[in-house]
Amino acid sequence: MSDTSADALAASGHRPMGFREFVIVIASIMALNPLAMDMMLPALPDIASAFHITSANRPQMVLSIFLVGFGVGQFVMGPLSDRFGRRPVLLGGMAVYCIASLLAIAAPSFETLLLARALQGLCTSATRVIATSIVRDCYAGRRMASVMSLAMMIFIAVPVVAPAFGQAVLLLTQWRGIFIVLMLYGVVALIWSALRMPETLPVERRRSLAVGEVFDAFRQTVTNRQTLGYALVAGGVLGSLFAFVFISQQVFTGIYKLGYYFPVAFAGVAVGTAIAGFVNSRLVGRLGMRAISHTALIGFVVIAATMLVAAKMQMLPLPLFMVLSISMMFAFGLMIANFTALAMEPQGHIAGTAASLYGSITTLLGIGIGATIGQDYDGTLVPFATGFLLCTLAALAVVLVVEKGRLFRPHVLKV
Fold first, then answer.
1. CA distance 191 to 184
2. DSSP collapsed to 3 states, 114-180
3. Which helix (H) or strand (E) holds 276?
4. What is the C-alpha to C-alpha distance for residues 26 and 138, in angstroms, rounded to an integer?
5. Is 257 exposed, middle or buried (0-12, 13-18, 19+ CB in 10 A)?
6. DSSP 223
7. Distance between CA atoms of 206 and 2, rounded to whole angstroms?
8. Which residues contact 141 (CB under 8 A, 6 or more apart)?
9. What does the alpha-carbon distance between residue 280 and residue 301 come to, in Å, rounded to a whole number?
């Protein structure tokens, strides 16, 4: 589909919203997930204290169990949206998200809190899958990558401010107040989507929920060389990102002794991804998805190798760590939207199911890698840097296999 025809389809596909409002709404519903993740970072010590947790790494479960729910939920949200349409699944997911936030507010034990977090993650899987599916319903190819980059530029700004926002809430009240804020945000996003987001999947394009058809759609997704390959690549890259998020509070407050300034440092790192989203949205139409993402992946490898050498030599002061971390986030921002667009490009006829399976593969793989690296944290950056380098090398190897050794330029693949 050409950019011109994509624009024409979008003009009718997401009315009454114009392009700008469409991007903002997509970013807003996608932001439910990173907001629920990153606002919790400053609260982990308080949660550990409230529930008398003595293990230094156990509070990371507040983050990892949320992502498990997010990853598992994506298996079902896509097929449901392909059968019943995007709106009912999206609105239902956000409504249950608000209920899960209430459960977290009232949680009497750490186990109940983890249950609420898993349910929150499950519900935000609907927002992520449906958002990707809606964009694919309205756009294709480089235009889709551009739209996803603009949306991600906005929603990636959430991790920039979320820890500081969470810290501000903690200055006014206890950690449960964070869940009140999350619930209120969910209510606003739900109302906005209910009033303005149209149904983008026509009835004639909906698919049956028959087991055979669902598994056939899954089969089409996982047997497509380009889709599966870039799902694995994105999963490896996400593993590095999740590991960084899991240990960030311990690193900035433990190694670098930043205390209450941790959210400021985290925001400084996260802004690299937001900048990359804007850069990608402006360049992808001219340079293409492969040229940008493959170059960024090679840069990712160089950054990881530099960090590992510096960590092993105990020559990783805060300024150098910040530069490398910002560069890591910038490279990540140039990769993730393009990897998503490349994976989804052949799957327009089963966009919901494909987005569902793609999201599950990338998230669960990323969680497994990130949690493993995070639990190996020993008070130094060596375990993280080692895992970071291994993830990036594996991702580069998979890209070479998918593209048959030919990087940077598009070519016809047998799928």
1. 11
2. HHHHHHHHHHHHHHHHHHHHHHHHHCCHHHHHHHHHHHHHHHCHHHHHHHHHHHHHHHHCCCHHHHH
3. helix 262-287
4. 12
5. exposed
6. T
7. 24
8. 1, 3, 6, 341, 345
9. 19
pLDDT in tens, the chain (415 residues): 344 444 444 435 566 677 778 888 888 888 888 889 889 988 988 999 999 888 878 888 998 899 889 888 888 887 888 888 889 999 999 999 999 999 999 999 999 999 999 999 999 988 888 887 888 777 766 666 667 666 666 666 676 678 888 888 998 989 999 999 999 999 999 999 998 888 888 888 887 777 787 788 888 888 888 999 999 999 999 999 889 988 888 899 999 999 878 888 888 887 787 788 778 878 887 888 899 999 999 999 999 999 999 999 999 999 999 999 999 999 998 898 889 888 888 877 776 677 778 878 888 898 889 989 988 888 899 999 999 999 999 999 999 999 988 888 765 444 4
The tokens 């969470």 sit on which residue?
166
Q: How far is CA 325 from the centre of its chain?
A: 17
How many angstroms separate the Cα of 384 from the Cα of each of 36, 40, 154, 369? 23, 21, 28, 11
* pLDDT the model gives residue 311: 94
How far is 138 from 130, CA to CA, in rounded Å?
Answer: 12
Sign for the CA dihedral angle at 232, 234, 237, 238 comes to negative
Distance CA 75, CA 357 (A): 6
Count of beta carbons in the 10 Å neighbourhood of residue 63: 26
* Residues 97/77, Cβ–Cβ less than 8 Å: no
Residue 405 has what DSSP assignment? T
User: How many whole angstroms separate alpha carbon 354 and alpha carbon 352?
Assistant: 5
Amino acid in position 410: P
3-state SS, residue 381: coil
The pTM of this model reads 0.73
CA distances from 54 to 48, 60, 257, 371, 379 (A): 7, 12, 20, 19, 16
Instruction: Report how far residue 255's alpha carbon sits from residue 236's, in angstroms, rounded to the nearest whole number.
Output: 26
Provide the 10 A C-beta neighbour count for residue 211.
Answer: 8
For the chain, domains (ranges, CATH) are: 16-209 (1.20.1250.20), 212-407 (1.20.1250.20)
Q: Is the dihedral of CA 189, 62, 162, 130 positive or negative?
A: negative
In this structure, the number of other CB atoms found within 10 A of the CB of residue 267 comes to 18
* pLDDT of the residue at 6: 40
